[in-house]
């Protein structure tokens, strides 16, 4: 049997909560060890005991509430965040579209970013030259703006350029975080077509989205993450149903609590 393309075993990552800053030498000199700005800081597990496998050609949707660990999981798969526990094995090159951009540098222009990020992902200068116009057209960046620093772009422009570039990569694994939520309707349609084309070629995708329509359209599998736990690994419909049931129960509980307070 073919090996899974992504294999996560007992993944866990912890972050610091309430950590403000490092103690300065001056503070240490004046107050000794008594005054610690991080006294109240503590670590918390953003994700723990997460294990799953993704086969070649799968499109897996990660669902769950805000702040539950979805982007963190995607970052560990991308290798930009190292787990504190467990391992994640990724067999193949990854095209990541994380945090609404492709890793662009705000100080550089759109053109410079396309060349820099494209080459970091292994595109040759010739490939970049040949595809540059196609990328800019796809992203609908108006003439002139491509030579403007990216810090002056709207979030939609950054995402469009990021998607246009990353979708040119022929890497077998694609990681997409909430990108479709930002583009306008006509751009989303273009993205849908581009994603469908990629998936036809047996590429593997992991998608984080709050949009049920997008998840059902592309994903055959779903991972439901709840407060840092992977509570369900199933087909996408089942994962969404479980998430919706929990959300309804939570809303009902909140209404009951608010009603109790008002009474
Ligand atoms: N670098 C970091 N330092 C400290 N805490 C972090 C860091 N990155 C994420 N967290 C925390 O980890 C938890 C999970 O965050 P994550 O961004 O993965 O959630 P999410 O499910 O993707 O949320 P959303 O749906 O809002 O995008 C949150 O409590 C978040 O505040």
TrEMBL record:
Start and end residues of each ABC transporter domain: 25-252
Xref: Pfam families: ABC_tran
CDD domains linked to this entry: ABC_KpsT_Wzt (cd03220)
Source domain of life: Bacteria
Keyword set, alphabetical order: ATP-binding, Nucleotide-binding, Transport
UniProt-recorded Gene Ontology molecular function terms: ABC-type transporter activity; ATP binding; ATP hydrolysis activity
Family from the record: Belongs to the ABC transporter superfamily.
UniProt-recorded name of the protein: ABC transporter domain-containing protein
Lineage per the UniProt record: Bacteria, Bacillati, Actinomycetota, Actinomycetes, Streptosporangiales
